[in-house]
Amino acid sequence: MWLYSAKLLKKLNMKKLIYFLNFLTLSVFAQQWQPLDNGLDGTVRALLPDTTHGHLIIGGDFARIHGNIHKSLAAWNGTRIDSIGTFSCMPTFSLGAMSSGQYSGYVFATDCNHMYMRDNSVWLPLDSNFSGTPLCFVKHDSTLYIGGGFNYVNDTYGGSLAYLRAGHFRNISLPYANSMVNDIAFLHDTMYVLMSYPDSIGKPIPKVLQRNCSCQGWVDITPYLAYGVSWAGSLETYKGALYLAGKFSTQSGSIGDAIICYDGTWHDVSGGITQSGTYGQVYTLYTYGNLLFVGGFFQYAGGVPASNIATWNGSYWCGFNGVLNDAVRSVAGMNDSLYIGGQFTSIDGIQTNYIARYQTLISNLCH
What we know:
This protein is mainly beta. Helix content is 8%, strand content 46%. The chain has two domains: 1-30; 34-364, Methylamine Dehydrogenase, Chain H. It has a four-stranded antiparallel beta sheet, with no helix packed on it. The protein has a four-stranded antiparallel beta sheet with strand order 2-3-6-7, with no helix packed on it. Strands 8-9-10-11 form a four-stranded antiparallel beta sheet, with no helix packed on it. 43% of the residues are buried.
């Protein structure tokens, strides 16, 4: 009797072990990067969750989808990548959307020469409103803010910053002429603008400006970035602080490496992004699921192995499984999956063609 019970117990334990190993294998597999359809044929620069139409909009340098010519714009519906319009000029730099107000459900896009608004399935040009190219969109409350490389909005001189409210585009004056706005961020009622303007020989001088909605003036909070060898391209607010990212290092006198944060003063972010040769650049910041996602061209974040994408939880850095063969340019979260686009064509040797998904519970990452 005892021998029979021992054999039965051993058999049951073996079944549990096999079940556990299968569960572990499936769990690990579920947390790997996955390609999206056949991918694309060029760099993905912008990703936008479009909840109104239930898909992920993709913008970039690509010219073909499934072998057919469709420039710059595509959409992922969860199963397939299809075209949602063809622009005459590549690339698509930025995407934006409104979820409230007069333009609720509308999507905005900019290519190398123009700005468009999507009304259902039709893209309408908005060039008559701008004397240049908008490059970024940020929604705050019921207002869409637009930054880029333009000096006039509806024939009014401004300086590359505008907003859309109640059906009208209006400019917001900046203190520097011939400037270019690279990114915009909001923390409560405070607006932050990352911009640059040319010096006497045309080199861009970066500036970070702050403006509270209750006052009229701009406050310059620019940290030191070594002139001529550094650049900053992305802003994001996360857990009560402003984050600035780009290409800069402590070796050149910066406070941190490739990413720093501001909460009244500028700080390093726990070691930042390790600088090594051409590695050490951040192209995009994105907040999703109580985490800050950092994409670029790097191998380590805070000393932790991270192949071109990492997460920061406010206290420490975390990396992802998989080695990407090139840079990440855009990050987006939708339906508890993480999507990345960029210059990479493979992850761990598996072909991904510039776009991939990390299918796992975001709440399980970096906690």
